[in-house]
Write a structure and sequence with these properties.
Elements lengths: L2 H14 L2 H16 L2 H5 L2 E3 L12 H9 L3 E8 L4 E7 L6 E3 L5 E3 L15 E4 L3 E3 L4 E2 L5 H8 L6 E5 L4 E2 L13 E4 L1
Parallel strand pairs: 1-2, 1-6, 6-9, 7-10, 9-11
Antiparallel strand pairs: 2-3, 4-5, 7-8
Length: 185
């Protein structure tokens, strides 16, 4: 199956889940993440807002990370430059806007400041599908792959997914950046 067909298939499967199924599975995945040494020892954690995507619910992860004293970083897409700008989230009740790609991100204001990429010590990465080699299939614009290439190789990159999102193999290209690990349930 090519990447575009796989994206369509996975979006359908994500949207078929009931809210209850998604919430229950997300809670199990979150608990696995919270037990990871890399998560516990991180100071700057880059996450993403999963609202409206059908993916693993990241809202509780964001809230817990903030409560643990972690500095939570979220991506803001800079469309004209085709890149992600990492921005620190200070309040989970901050205004969010829907980006051009339908993904929620913090509304930038005078109080919102980008952070240095070198400060990020863990990245939780979204994906429509993953494979057993830690490859991921994103939404097709390449923002995350370009961003992940800019990180130090020592920074762990963890994908979160439901069991049906973990496949034996997914198609990859030279531009795709593999993750450190994928947490599924």
């Amino acid at each position: 199956m090519n990447k575009e067909d796989l994206r369509k298939s996975m979006k359908k499967k994500l949207n078929k889940q009931t809210v209850s199924e998604r919430r229950t599975k997300s809670r199990l995945i979150q608990n696995k993440l919270f037990r990871q040494d890399r998560f516990l020892s991180s100071k700057y954690v880059m996450l993403y807002v999963s609202k409206g995507t059908g993916e693993v619910d990241t809202s509780p992860i964001i809230k817990k990370a903030l409560n643990m004293g972690k500095k939570v970083v979220l991506p803001v897409t800079v469309v004209r430059e085709r890149k992600i700008r990492p921005v620190r989230l200070r309040n989970p009740k901050q205004d969010f806007i829907r980006s051009q790609y339908g993904i929620y991100e913090p509304r930038e204001s005078g109080r919102t400041r980008p952070i240095r990429i070198k400060d990020i010590d863990l990245v939780i990465v979204p994906g429509l599908a993953f494979d057993r080699h830690n490859n991921r299939l994103g939404r097709g614009q390449g923002y995350y792959d370009r961003f992940l290439k800019r990180l130090s190789g020592a920074v762990p990159k963890i994908g979160l997914g439901f069991r049906f999102q973990l496949l034996k193999n997914i198609p990859t290209t030279a531009n795709d950046v593999p993750l450190t690990r994928v947490i599924c349930n």
